Every structure is written in structure tokens, then in C-alpha cells.
Amino acid sequence: MNMNMNPNSELVQSAVNVPNLVQVPDALISQAQEFQRAMMMYTCAIREVKTKLEVLNDELSIKNQRNPIEMIKSRVKKPLSIVEKLQRRNLPVTLESMMNNLDDVAGIRVICSFVDDIYAVANMLVSQDDITVIAIKDYIKNPKSNGYRSYHLIIEIPVFFSEEKKNLRVEVQIRTIAMDFWASLDHQLKYKKDIGAAADEISEDLRQCAEVIAATDQHMLQIRKSIEEKSARQSK
């Protein structure tokens, strides 16, 4: 191990504190300083995208007299999760491999009020000329088999540093409040170890709940549009 490396770095602490979960190769540990710089870069990429989303939200709040975005959450993937994902894909566990192969190291979750807000925000974001769209997965129109719904974007954005410009990828997930509530509950239950034979029954219950939530989202959208139409007629 490089003796000049910061012993408090997140990568080193992960390797020291949780040695049995994932094997962190010496080659990656020796890159700890470079890894920290990469994480800083991804954090800056998140900041750039969040600023764009906040500007859009502010503009639309004036234009439409309401905020389409209720909340923006963000995270940079933890070192152990990065190593585990690379190993699961049989990819080299190196810094270069991480930056070339993983699109979700930097992640942003956008929580919207209504389904049409999801598409409006996504379209305005990807229309900006400094953003490159890498991939789109619409799990709202095409839900996963377990009922999961969300709109996923992989985008690339330039970030300017003191001596270079770096194009970095960010995963953006856009969903309604109800979709986010369902996904959070589904995530929690996946990691419960003691549900045993009840797992299939719970999964089916969750799938049915997802259908109810999707119907409720559409109904709420119809109610909002009805209110807007009546308000527009009265103001004439």
C-alpha cells in the first residue's frame, strides 16, 4: 500500500473496515488519491446538473404558477458498491474501468408532483446544448415486471476545472412522489432477510400497489388539468 496515501480516505476505510463484503484489489487501493479526485469530479457534475434543474424549476414556477419539482436528491456511489458492481460485471477493478463502464457513479433523483411534469422537466433538461444524452429508459410507459416506475436518463455534462474540462456522466431518475414512496418501500423489503416464504406474496402485493399508485397518479393529473381549465375559463 502506498505509504503517502491518506489513511482516512473513504476507499481505504472501506477496505479496512469491511474486508469480508468485497475484496478491494491492491491496485485500486494504491489509486486512492486519484479515486478521491474522481469522486470530487462526480460531485461537481452533480452540482452542475442540480443547478440546471433548480433554474428550470424556478422558471416554471413563474410560468405555471407552481413548482413542478418537489425535491432533488443526489448521491455519489460508495466505493464498495463501485467495486462490487465492477466485479459483478467481470470488469477490471480500476479507476479507468469505473469511469469508462459505470454510468451511475453520480446519481440524481428528481421528485415531481405530476406525471406530465416528469416529461416536461426531462425534455427541457436534455434540450440544453451542453448536455449529451447517452441513454433513456422510460419505466413509466414500460414498467418493470415488479411494478417499478420511473424515468431514467444517462447524460454527459462538461465540468470545467482549473486545468481541464472533463465530460462526466450522471444518472438522472425522475419520478412522482407516489412512485418514489413505492420504490423506497420496495428497496427496504429487498434487504429484509427474515421474510422467507412470504417473499413472493409480498412481491405480488407490491406489484398490485404499484398499479394502484399509477392509476392514482393519472387521476391526480386529470384533477389538476380540470382545475386549470376551469380557472382559465373563469379568468376570461
Automatic annotation (TrEMBL):
Q: Which SUPFAM superfamilies match?
A: Nucleotidyltransferase
Q: Which InterPro entries match?
A: GTP_Pyrophosphokinase, NT_sf, RelA_SpoT
Q: Report the pathway entry.
A: Purine metabolism; ppGpp biosynthesis; ppGpp from GTP: step 1/2
> Which Gene3D superfamilies does this chain map to?
Beta Polymerase, domain 2, Nucleotidyltransferase
UniProt cross-references to SMART domains, sorted A to Z: RelA_SpoT (SM00954)
**What domain of life does the native source organism fall in?**
Bacteria
> Which stretches make up the RelA/SpoT domain?
74-197
What is the protein name stated in its UniProt record?
GTP pyrophosphokinase family protein
Q: Which organism is it from?
A: Ventrimonas faecis
